[in-house]
Amino acid sequence: WALLGPYSRQWPLTKVLDIGGVAYRPSFATDGDVEVPPIPAHVHPGYVKDGRCCMREGKLEAYFFPPVDSTTVYDGKVENPDKVITRLGLRPDVSREELREALNGFGKDDAVYKLMQTYSIIPNTSWTIQPGMMHAPGPWPTFEIQRAQDDAHLLAWKLGQPVKDHKVLSKIWSNNFAKGLPDADAVLRETVHFEGSRDPKFMEKWFRPCEPVESSWGRRRRIFHHEFDGEGFEILPGQSYERPGGEEPYAALVWSGKGEVCAVQSDREFRPFTVEALTEFNSEFLVTPKTTVRITNTSKLDLLYVYTVLPISTKSWFVAPEDWVS
Questions:
Q1: I want to staple 111 with a disulfide (CB 3.0 to 4.6 A). Which of 102, 220, 292, 325 is the partner?
Q2: What's the pLDDT tens digit per position in 273-288?
């Protein structure tokens, strides 16, 4: 209670997704056309219970795409960053029958990917992915926030990497695609929010540019939206930002740079501690409720990037498939 107050049940799981690797040729591409695979196309429909999924209880998640330019330690990590795509949702013209047919190619071809909507990855933007909505996050270092659960069903195998061995494919199909459901018909019916995935207003609803608020010390921006909340602080060399305490606790990740963090209280002094990106023990910290902290960039040259996550809101934006109105 002292750490999280009444928010322990709303506390999110956070991840840094290091998506990337060797480029492959998708089955639908022309000769010589290759791409670095995304995370395999999948959905989060809730756990299978007695042959059904309660999609409302599925894993809600969101992504923030941080900058990977020369102001960060990730400079050069992403090749041709202006050309990287992510696949989220389905194209609005896709029919249920087309998707059902594509599911037959699990582990054999990349037909599902061809039906998905592609978007260019833009730094300092975020997406919210509701339960049951198809997604295959693209190859970009990504800050993810989610409900703390793992109810994924893969709808396609690794892009450009078909499974040749029938016995191996059968095991992958059972453990990753079906996961307790009898066949592809049941997977489509129980796990995929079809209308939500092909919503023509998918981007309008779930994409958000994370515009900054400029200050003398640097920039502050909201990096997660809808049910989620989080902040990004970009602190200039030698500058400090004092974040007032609030009712909610928050966790912080040092994305790039180094500095010091110190609790602030009018009648008491606290010893600062050092933080630095990509280190094993001091790249993250937790701030308890009503605690004001001062974050200082101790570098003379580099920006300090700190990203935070707050408890998940009790308000929901989810609309169940049976309640969907086109």
A1: 102
A2: 999 999 999 999 999 9
